[in-house]
Structure prediction request, 325 residues.
Amino acid sequence: MNVAIVGCGLIGQKRARVLGKHRLAVAVDVTESMAACVAGICSCSETCTNWEDAVTRTDVDLVIVATTNDFLAPVSLAAIKNGKHVLVEKPAARNYDELLPLLQACEQGGVKVRVGFNLRYHPAFRKARDIIDSGALGSLMFVRGRYGHGGRTGYDREWRAVPGKAGGGELLDQGIHLVDLSRWFLGDFEHVEGFTHTYFWDMPVEDNGFMCLRTPSRQVAWLHASCTEWKNMFSFEIYGQFGKLHIEGLGGSYGVERLYYYKMLPQMGPPETTIWEYPFPDDSWQLEFDDFISSIENNGGDRGNLKDALATLKIVQQIYGGKQQ
Prediction:
């Protein structure tokens, strides 16, 4: 496939490194040096600063959109209308209403659109999915998730702190992953409660988001996203009738990725414990991209699609209640 990457920051560079046999046709960024960086990764000679030119090119089959949140939906929508497949980074739009036209255009245009929920492809989550699908945990009861970082000097002056660019704060940033993972395991939530607040950073968007989500069968997701964590942290616990799974760490500054399986014994008491450790480099970006290519080539089903993104954004929008708290 011939690929255009729009947005050549950290995530755009990660995407460029996993194209493999697929050709980068053009790298696009408002900063020419950033576009040149991504082009260099793929030995591509073409760059530009105008995304409209890229999504209308006849030699582009797939557009990867890794811009700031305010451009995710406009670039993706234009690409879809021009018959391109799209991989757009989460949250895919600043809000539910902004994303809805993409679903309509996708259904009319017959193209595939994937949203970058790459945590689903981390090895601990793939293993957890296998254990749950085997029935070993029985019926799932609830999940508890925490995801946070400590920011950096000047964090409250970056684009994620600007409402018009970001659309929201930490709830929309890292919190969107927690919501997506919870839906992946428990299904849709019909009852949504939450609270957002800015405790530390001098910015008009929240630095902490708290959620209590409940399915029709009363399964609960109890979630907290924070950028006042100070030590980067990821923890996701899945509780079933017959045991518990706990995923912690995501590699790098989040610590070694591990999956703990606590298996309930017939006599109960201390559980039988198995631990898997994943110290190798993060391959979720590669697996996600390869899976998307496979779904395009084989007309397969999509996971992490626009409907998933719409469901997560609807939950976030309900918690925001139309304004920051």
Observations:
- The first helix runs from residue 10 to 16.
- The radius of gyration is 20 Å.
- The chain is about 35% helix and 25% strand.
- The mean pLDDT is 95.
